[in-house]
Amino acid sequence: MILKPFKRESIIPLPITFISTVSNDGIRNIAPYGCVMPVLRPLDLVCIATAKRRDTLYNIRQTGEFVINLAGTNLCDKVIPTARHSPPEADEFELACLEEKPSVVVKPPGIKGCYAWMECTLDKLFEEPRYILIMGKVVHLEIDDAVYCPDGSLDVERAKPLFMTGSNAAMHYCTVTDTGRSDSFGAMFPDRKDPLERMYRE
Ligand SMILES: Cc1cc2nc3c(=O)[nH]c(=O)nc-3n(C[C@H](O)[C@H](O)[C@H](O)COP(=O)(O)O)c2cc1C
To answer: How would you class 44 by CB atoms within 10 Å of its CB: exposed for 0-12, middle for 13-18, buried for 19 or more?
Structure first.
């Protein structure tokens, strides 16, 4: 089957994150974002692809701060309430009946009920005619103890991270499962040693 090139996003399951921001006037905003990617291992940068007309982008430009909230499948009924267009003066925590999790470093609050929170400051905007890439620097990273394994991995069976695939007419909500198999990072290198190993010692 040959697909139209733009359908590339339908065949990559995308994480559904919720980005929370506040305006300079203190209005709280939330929007779901799927085009979110950590930039290499082990940098502290996250790249987000955004359309230009987004209150999220406007708030990030104004304040330089945002939180990427990682959600489980339990929050899939919050996707549409936060994705629908709402006037910039509307408080989207109230609209979507979501509660704040106070942030540690940045002003925008996180969302209670998520399993992890990336508090970010704006590092750089890459502005293109049709899209903008927001480069965020993670300044505080927190995870619910209940979904963090002793080896430093995410317990996906417990967290049930919310993902989506796209059909021609809908977003299909899905999650990931652990195959039970793993390889060490070191296995990629001729000497079997991960050059970044030191950084992961807690
Ligand atoms: C599952 C999902 C993923 C989305 N991902 C993105 C994205 O990566 N980038 C983007 O610009 N818009 C994305 N959107 C659209 C925005 O969430 C939507 O336009 C929202 O109303 C923007 O809110 P804001 O104006 O308050 O920022 C997504 C929507 C959904 C439902």
So the answer is: middle
Split the chain (202 residues) into runs of 10 and give each run's mean pLDDT.
Answer: 95 98 97 98 97 97 98 98 93 98 98 98 98 98 98 97 97 97 97 95 78
The CB of 49 under 6 Å from ligand 1? The reply is yes
Q: Whose CA is nearest to atom 31 of ligand 1?
A: 83
- The CB of 176 under 6 Å from ligand 1? The reply is no
β-sheet with 14-15: strand ranges across:
14-15, 163-166, 171-174
Check: CATH 2.30.110.10 for 12-200? Answer: yes
Instruction: Measure the CA–CA gap between 167 and 55, rounded to whole angstroms.
Output: 27
Cα(105) to centroid of ligand 1, in Å? 25
pTM over the 0.70 mark: yes
Kindly state if the Cβ of 134 falls inside 6 Å of ligand 1: no
Give nearest CA residue, ligand 1 atom 20. 83
